[in-house]
Amino acid sequence: RGAAGVGPDLAGRHVVVTAGGTREPLDPVRFLGNRSSGKQGYALARTAAARGARVTLVSANSALPDPAGVDLVRVGSAEELRTAVTAAAADADAVVMAAAVADFRPAAYATGKIKKKAGQEPEPLALARNPDILAELAAHRPRPGQLVVGFAAETDRVLEHGRAKLAAKGCDLLVVNEVGESRTFGSEENEAVVLGTDGSETPVPHGPKEALAETVWDLIAERFPGLSE
Ligand code: CTP
Ligand code: CA
After folding, report:
1. H runs (alpha helix) in the chain
2. SS3 75
3. Which residue has its alpha carbon closest to ligand 1 atom 9?
């Protein structure tokens, strides 16, 4: 595959994809989490490998089978994802943050299981902000020309929120999709618009997550600087 239809257009590239959803531990048996299945990130990893890239897939708590031909790094929390993706990004040509990273974590981790006390109301749960990994990656690129791509899930005013988010994150492309109770999370299909810092706006019609993944790699490939020998 490629613009001219010849050869794998991502050959010679190292790409890093994050997938799934982080779990923020509260005690040894409990966590705060989200409903991300990992399907979009795994589709991105598979399609990049099929197009010739070396792929590192940083997977947060996905139950999906390990994709063939991909370096898989399993993580749990946002902090673990940050460490893994930052290490993998050091020599990457592109980083695609498809994972749903928890915005907050429990402010304190209890090393023993939290017990209820007879006749007492529960304590309110104190939360702390997690680092914005995408914004950090975009602000501190270890290689010139490295492309950083984010995903945004929005429930309303999707384009308006997407544009603001693209600017706030400082990434090159933002894939914006609309989510709701039964939309997108865990489903096989996706509908999105990919916003670029260059002002581009690429609508991706409702269809399989593979099709969105291919469009994302098309947009990345056409923005890559040339390969040096
Ligand atoms: N992201 C991240 N680190 C975080 C939160 C989000 O790297 N702590 C990344 C996600 O992987 C995604 C992008 O940022 O690629 C957008 O995530 P989203 O939750 O839509 O954005 P937020 O900035 O967290 O905004 P919101 O308040 O709408 O959740
Ligand atoms: Ca968020």
Report:
1. 39-50, 78-89, 133-139, 158-169, 209-221
2. strand
3. 134
Evaluate whether 171 touches 138 at the Cβ level (below 8 Å). Answer: yes
Residue labelled with tokens 């705060």: 32
Any residues with CB less than 8 A from the CB of 50 and at least 6 apart, and which?
A: 1, 8
**Amino acid (1-letter code) at residue 23:** R
* Residues in a beta bridge with 19: 59
User: What residue has token string 């197009």?
Assistant: 51
**Is 61 one of the catalytic residues?**
no
Give me ligand 2 centre to Cα 154, in Å: 10
Give the nearest ligand 1 atom to 130 CA.
8
| pTM of structure | 0.94
Atom in ligand 1 nearest the alpha carbon of residue 133: 7
How large is the ipTM? 0.99
**Nearest residue CA, atom 21 of ligand 1?**
152
Confirm or reject: Cβ of 153 under 6 Å from ligand 1: yes
Q: Which neighbouring-strand residues pair with 195?
A: 174, 201
Looking at the domain 14-102+126-221, which fold is it? Rossmann fold (3.40.50)
Beta strands 173-178 and 147-154, pairing class: parallel
Look at residues 88, 72, 82, 79 and name the one whose alpha carbon lies nearest to residue 24: 79
State the pLDDT at residue 84: 98
pLDDT digits (tens, 9 = 90+) for 188-204: 677 899 999 999 999 99
53: closest CA among 88, 98, 15? 15
The whole-angstrom separation of Cα 21 and Cα 24 is 10
